[in-house]
Amino acid sequence: MAFPTTRLRRLRRTPTLRRMVRETTLSVDDLVYPMFVVPGTDVHEAIGSMPGQFRWSVDLLVREVEAVAALGIPAVLLFGIPESKDESATGAYADQGIVQQAVRALKQAVPTLVVITDVCLCEYMSHGHCGVIENQAVANDATLELLAKTALSHARAGADLIAPSDMMDGRVGAIRRALDAEGFDQIPIMSYAAKMASAFYGPFREAAESAPAFGDRRSYQMDFANRREALREVALDVEEGADIVMVKPALAYLDLIRDVRERFDLPVAAYNVSGEYAMVKAAAERGWIDGERIMWETLTAIKRAGADLILTYFAKDAARGLGKG
Questions:
Q1: Cis omega before residue 4 (within 30°)?
Q2: Which of 195, 281, 303, 316 is catalytic?
Q3: What angle do helix axes 227-240 and 254-263 make, rounded to 10 degrees?
Q4: Which of 34, 35, 61, 226 is deepest in the core (most CB within 10 A)?
Q5: Whole-structure pTM over 0.90, yes or no?
Q6: For the chain, which residues make up each domain, given as ranges?
Q7: What is the pLDDT of residues 4-51, one digit of tens each?
């Protein structure tokens, strides 16, 4: 019935009423906290373009992750910055690589925490690209072997979930076969299935020291204009054995999150990336916006679009707020 009989404002009148009829609710269980780990000891290095985020040595990472787990956050995503880089990304799959060390330490200190490892080669390659370079281009099939080796090394270290982010064709299948062949058939894969070639990654590349030395990543990361192709990418990763599929970035791609949620029955993750985080922090520092309210609006929008999991640098702040009820 129409106004004046129908008055939708009736259920907005008080905070308790609004809470009771809220259609989309965030939970701390939705959150994954990305973290950066570096060699050395007693390292707690601020990332200039990402206020409140740090590079951690393993010893301090353990203490920080204990605090993260105490907030109820169920999972962290690890990115490693090695001591040295080369053209074969040997640090990515070394038994004593920085991520492998971190995984062992975290699983010993906080065994119930889900430790997710990003599987990509860009941080470990001297040229900063996500794969093997042949004739000034990233060679897809030659890269698959190194990605599988990296995933296996993470699984051997104790990783709970493997997250390939490189956007090579066939990498989910290659990793699944390698894990299964070594007895890691119970380790799930969270695929960065629709990962765009995005300018929103700028602060991350500072944090991970992974900017490409030449060219860009548009020949393997997706064209951000392509919606149908994104769904093809997701479908292929599902067919190859992905257990969770991800859309990255999140905010400019809420339509894709919704598309993926409606098309596929797998859990859907979305990455609220470094540039999205940095813009909110920068504007809040200048007093232009209410940073906390924007955080809640952002995370709720991602959840409303259909994400089951949200990878976000806001995870600690959100968990504290959610803990207040």
A1: yes
A2: 195
A3: 40
A4: 61
A5: yes
A6: 25-323
A7: 999 999 999 999 999 999 999 999 999 999 999 999 999 999 999 999
